[in-house]
Predict the structure.
Amino acid sequence: MRILVHDHSGHPFQAELSRELARRGHDVTHSYVEGYVSGKGKLEAAPGETITFEGIGGAKVIDNQAMLQRLVRETARGFELVRHVRKVNPDIALMSNVQIPTLVIFAFFMAVLRRPWVLWHQDVYAVAIRSFAGKKLPKGFALVARAFEVAERWCSRRAAAIVVIAPSFVPVHEKWGTADKVTVIPNWAPLDEIRPTPRKNEWAAENGLDDVQTLVYSGTLGLKHNPALLVRLAKATIDAGRPVRLVVVNSGPAVDVLSAEAQRLGVEITLLPFQPYERLPEVLGTGDLLVVLLEQEAGAFSVPSKTLSYLCAGRPVLGLMPGENLASALVTRAGGLVLPPTDASMPEAAAWVAKVLTDDDLRQELGEASRDLAEQEFALQRLASRFEQLLEKGKR
């Protein structure tokens, strides 16, 4: 098969899937939006690999805060994505993390061109926008949420098949009349690319972090997160008698929020931009404990992929996130702690963090449990076979 995999974000596990499909003899092009700032995966072909990687949209960094400009840009990107499809000329396309205006343009022209495609449904955008309208977004965004729901449903009905990342998505597709096309395949992280590293590693030494205990957060911080909670967690841990350095690897508006809150509370913080993907194992290995954030409103419809990378890295994990989230179950199974993402959780969270930081044996035991669980859940061969079967079926 000639396959186009387009992942807007350029995340690691989507690229890993594309590589595996190419190893199986398929002609695979993997594309992504070049200017979107996030923790990107390994997006260059190594010597001997047959896969093609292509960035679209240009390398200029995208500002997602200017909403009108964003709408215009994402609409224009839909036409660019169609041109990209015509250039690659795939038998079938797999779309992941595509923004709704882009997806509508793409789906319309795919219908006109009579080309099959599969929706890899990572977020129900309409639910997310509705949840944050009147809180982190103006109340008027409730109308945007309604429009997005109509658009998402329309696009879903035109996909040959739909992959969802959690069972909680299924009732949405039942409502939309598309449940008969849905297959649940949970997200994963690349086991071979994100491996446990020594706590004292080159990256830790370069950033002055090899001789201090650390709480590390590495990943996106947007509407679905309250970055100030990270600082308050560090402050509560210090107040509980355990000195700790907060390390946040992120690029974007949250950096100013973190800096201001750290200054207000007198917390020492290391703020770093997104690091090259090949250094991610060292970044995560520098954490004595890794922290996941997810707002209650994001609940069942967003599975933070950083959690999966954390498990691969073999470190204890604290989740300040909704208990019903699929990733919460993984954190709990690995022996980590999950608490609601609120200030009321800080005393219990800080007590657990202090306990883990104090007990070397417990910290090692939890880290090994994280990696063991990742190896059980993230077997690429099985996951890739499921996608391969769906793509084969979808192109008929």
In short: The radius of gyration is 21 Å. The chain is about 45% helix and 15% strand.
